[in-house]
Design goal:
The chain is α/β, with parallel strands linked by helices. The protein has helices at 21-27, 32-53, 72-95, 111-123, 140-158, 163-175, 218-230, 240-248; strands at residues 13-17, 57-64, 98-103, 130-138, 183-186, 205-208. The structure holds farnesyl diphosphate (FPP).
Amino acid sequence: MKLPESMQSKGLNVAIIMDGNGRWAARRGLPRVAGHRAGIASVRRIVEHAVDRGIARLTLYAFSSDNWRRPASEIQSIFWLLRAFLRLETQRLLRRGVRLQTIGRRDRLPKPVLREIEKAESATATGKCLHLCVALDYSSQESIARAAVGVTESLTNIGSSSLDIFKLMLTQALMMEGGEVDLLIRTGGEKRLSDFLLWESAYAELLFTDCMWPEFDKNDFDAALEEFHRRERRFGGLPTATLQSAASTV
Ligand code: FPP
């Protein structure tokens, strides 16, 4: 689908909760790992397309801190697939100008996965087109709590107790993670945020689709971007038309 110039989506910050891999597989009588494998193919497609659309930042929820509750065999499969993705895709990411980083805890990740992440992060550090953030062992509440502890310590040191400064510093601390999200997409039919980028999504446009992640393709991504561009973002203000008619009656 060819978007008009005004809808090229340059500079947007998009976040995706990639849900539905397991159900996609179950419906085909396949093991859950087949769903995750198909999910990786979807990641590859959507990252390519995000570059083509000029998206500035794409944050993908790959493994939440609560996902440790899954069976060990499924966790192993997810990390195996992630490691293979990093090993096979880093050069392509580099060529397309993608800078890859992960957010979330690193201390509980399997060591070989961590090594592959570090290699991919340093190999793609100069990427200027798309900032691809992969959320791994990620919990937004934990991120906010950690950032709050850091900011509280800094403010105590400089003797300030201003709530505005606290909020500003907290936002800056969290900008390093997800940045302020413009559009948050969740595939798989559920309508919840599951502890993902809670602070950063304060004014995000939310889009929930029944499409399972392995089936989410370029057209679905474009449809989501079109829906985003149709919405009027008011950030707590008034609709533009109301403001214009108010101004003309003054
Ligand atoms: C949600 O589907 C998906 C996951 C918890 C894992 C997704 C992770 C990957 C595809 C690897 C990501 C890799 C990169 C490179 C970003 P689900 O299993 O919860 O699906 P269900 O709700 O249908 O059971």
